[in-house]
UniProtKB/TrEMBL annotation:
Keywords: ATP-binding, Membrane, Nucleotide-binding, Transmembrane, Transmembrane helix. The chain crosses the membrane at residues 51-69, 75-96, 108-128. ATP binds at G296, G297, T298, G299, S300, G301, K302, G303. Residues 577-587 have a biased composition (Basic and acidic residues). This is Plasmid transfer protein TraB. Gene3D superfamilies: P-loop containing nucleotide triphosphate hydrolases. Residues 577-621 are annotated as: Disordered. It comes from Streptomyces levis.
Length: 692
């Protein structure tokens, strides 16, 4: 009998015969357990399951003796007893058709022999002729045959044909063989082999729902792990009790001050083991770097899952985080001080995507020049190793290290709608070699939202509860066949998830887990973690920051943005900075005679309406100057993605028309001051230093 820590008896699962699964509560006593420690009591308890055949044999002898007192030498009783014997034997044969042929025959022979002897004993007397000898020899033999059968049926032979089809027969796997089960706390694992040439592992996967129904368990509690070296063998795993029902609140990061190369702990599996996720690769462990898809319906717990991951990331010292969140940081605001660059949706996110595309070749070039085939923790340190020097001659270069970069796209469906379903394709395909991990979070990663190329480039997935029809968008087919069904949860169990990622044992892919919950009590601790990350975490290296500034200019607000944007332009802010004796006149107005008459009004000056062709038409030289000033204003304000609609107020102030702005945008693109984006009619401003 198994007991838990409180002494309560624990329910187990035992595999009997050909796949019969019996649920029972252990009540056996070991020597010295209860019963005063009597060995005799223990032996009696162990013998009790084998007593019924002997009790039945004794009852038949008594019935024959008592019957002879009533019906001895009675012809009518003989006819009645004979018919009863034949009828009972026939009924036994008929009722045994649902069992194996061996059990059916054994039962019918036993009933026929017992009823024949009872009939003869009732009519002639139990001591007449050979009847006592038949009883003394036959009854023990029949009773022992049933004892032997009971012993043999508990010996689960994976290659032999057992006697009771039971559960597997009900689910269409009657000839499957189950081996010796491995019983662990809240988990039973049994090797299973289906009939050779008739069934495959796919048949077992299709039967998992029916097995769960027969055991009265949730669908996710029954899983199947196919043997990669066989198409008919695997392990059947049953978890009878949901140990994830209790909510576990987040109480801090698992490895404060560690490396991003160490595993991130985001929750626990149903057997209590931690859920681990690795982002960078490890050449020694033969593990590749990865991107992650976080998928789940509304209310499935994506927000808490994201917080589990982000708090783990910010607690490491060799990684920076870029975050795009169209929800205006509703869930992540306490962590903002520790995040290197955070933007909302729309044009700022589009700019971040452009910056990522620019950072990939810059980071890859740095890694290659320092002789790194992929990002490893040594990349984040000052390069004092001659083996990783970018200088010729084997001298250490002393270059500043490059931290790992995590680019997080929250509610990515908004970004995909704005930029197109292949917005992340290039990043997902190329970023891993640059020490960048892309994390995409959205509700429904269907193919009408995300291109198949992008989805194929996201090898890791955290699949939370979803619509049953969306399971195939989140998880690989092999994991679903093994018993993973996030559609069974929907939004009723927030935080329940499946984790598929490099570095995790594939046997774990179909095992459900649950992320930790973030309540209002976690806010203060998250703020402390963000302050710690700001003081002790990594900052963007010059290569990454330089690439970001070259695209985003002042819009890149990372900790290293100021250093990356040098040289700085000198701006006059105070009157004392100007040359003494000047007239405080703008240089552009230096040649204007204040006594001269104003120029005559030009046609259109009286009706400067935006969107119509009635605005004033400036000269080409004046037009370029005006438009250059407008782009500088946008850049200084951090708005690096523009289109004609963004010039509405500016056109009103300068009395210019929309068609004029469209022409100037095209001219600026030809001059290299603008770059086209993935969205028609939208342009990215090239920072003025980069353009120069």
């Amino acid at each position: 009998m198994a007991r838990n820590s409180s002494g309560r008896r624990v329910r187990h699962t035992d595999f009997l015969d050909n796949g019969v699964v019996a649920q029972y509560t252990g009540s056996g006593l070991l020597p010295g357990e209860g019963g005063g420690g009597s060995i005799g009591a223990y032996l009696v308890q162990r013998a009790m399951p084998h007593l019924p055949p002997w009790v039945t044999a004794a009852g038949i002898g008594i019935a024959g003796g008592l019957g002879s007192l009533q019906w001895a030498q009675s012809a009518a009783a003989g006819v009645g007893l004979t018919l009863a014997s034949v009828g009972l034997t026939g009924a036994t044969w008929w009722m045994g058709k649902s069992t194996t042929q061996q059990r059916r025959l054994h039962s019918a022979i036993t009933v026929a022999a017992a009823s024949a002897w009872t009939t003869a004993a009732c009519l002639a007397g139990p001591t007449a002729g050979p009847l006592p000898d038949l009883y003394l020899m036959g009854a023990p033999v029949v009773a022992l045959s049933w004892n032997i059968r009971m012993i043999l049926r508990r010996n689960d032979d994976p290659v032999g044909q057992n006697g009771d089809k039971g559960l597997l027969e009900k689910v269409g796997l009657a000839r499957a063989q189950i081996g010796n089960a491995k019983v662990e706390p809240n988990r039973v694992t049994a090797p299973l082999a289906v009939e050779a040439g008739e069934q495959t592992n796919d048949d077992v996967s299709k039967a998992l729902g029916r097995i769960a129904s027969a055991l009265d368990l949730p669908t996710s509690a029954v899983r199947y792990r196919p043997d990669p070296d066989s198409s008919r063998r695997g392990d059947l795993v049953i978890v009878p009790e949901d140990m994830l029902a209790d909510v576990v609140e987040w109480d801090g990061p698992s490895n404060l001050g560690g490396s991003i190369a160490d595993p991130l702990v985001i929750g626990r599996y149903d057997d209590g083991a931690p859920m681990l996720l690795w982002l960078p690769g490890d050449p020694e462990a033969k593990r590749n770097s990865t991107h992650v898809l976080v998928a789940g319906g509304t209310g499935s717990g994506k927000g808490d899952t994201a917080l589990n991951l982000q708090t783990e990331i910010l607690s490491r010292t060799d990684v920076i985080l870029w975050l795009s969140d169209p929800k205006a940081f509703q869930d992540f605001r306490p962590l903002l001080p520790g995040i290197d660059w955070a933007v909302e949706g729309g044009a700022p996110t589009e700019l971040m995507v452009e910056a990522l595309q620019a950072a990939i070749p810059a980071r890859t070039r740095w890694l290659g020049s320092h002789h790194y085939r992929q990002w490893v923790p040594a990349c984040a340190q000052t390069q004092n190793d001659p083996a990783h020097s970018c200088r010729p001659g084997g001298r250490a270069c002393g270059c500043e290290g490059m931290p790992f970069l995590v680019a997080w796209m929250e509610e990515a469906a908004n970004t995909l709608r704005a930029l197109g379903d292949d917005a992340f394709t290039g990043i997902a395909q190329e970023a891993r070699s640059a020490g960048i991990s892309l994390i995409v979070s959205l509700q429904r990663p269907s193919y009408d939202q995300m291109s198949t190329s992008t989805r194929a480039s996201l090898p890791s997935v955290i699949a939370l509860g979803c619509d049953p029809r969306d399971e195939g968008f989140s998880l690989p087919e092999s994991v679903i066949d093994a018993g993973a069904h996030p559609g069974a949860w929907g939004n009723r169990r927030p935080g329940y998830c499946y984790l598929v990622s490099p570095g995790i044992d594939e046997d774990r892919y179909a095992s459900p887990g649950r992320t930790r919950a973030f309540t209002h009590r976690a806010t203060a601790l998250m703020e402390q973690l963000a302050a710690w990350a700001l003081a002790n975490g990594a900052t963007a290296d010059p290569v990454t920051a330089g690439a970001a500034v070259s695209i985003a200019g002042n819009a890149y607000t990372g900790h290293a943005a100021e250093a990356a944007s040098t040289p700085q332009l000198t701006v006059v802010h105070r009157e004392d900075d100007m040359p003494h004796g000047s007239r405080h006149v703008d240089p552009e107005d230096a040649d204007i005679d204040p006594e001269a008459d104003l120029p005559e009004p030009e046609q259109g000056d009286d009706a400067p309406i935006f969107g119509q062709e009635t605005g004033r038409k400036p000269s080409p030289e004046e037009a370029r100057e005006l438009f250059a000033q407008a782009l500088e204003e946008f850049e200084q304000n951090g708005q690096m993605i523009v289109g004609p609609v963004d010039f509405t107020d500016w056109c009103d102030r300068n009395q210019l028309s929309r068609s004029w702005v469209s022409l100037r945008l095209k001219e600026a693109a030809i001059d290299g001051r603008l770059e086209p984006t993935n969205t028609t009619g939208r342009w990215r401003i090239v920072p003025i230093l980069a353009a120069a």
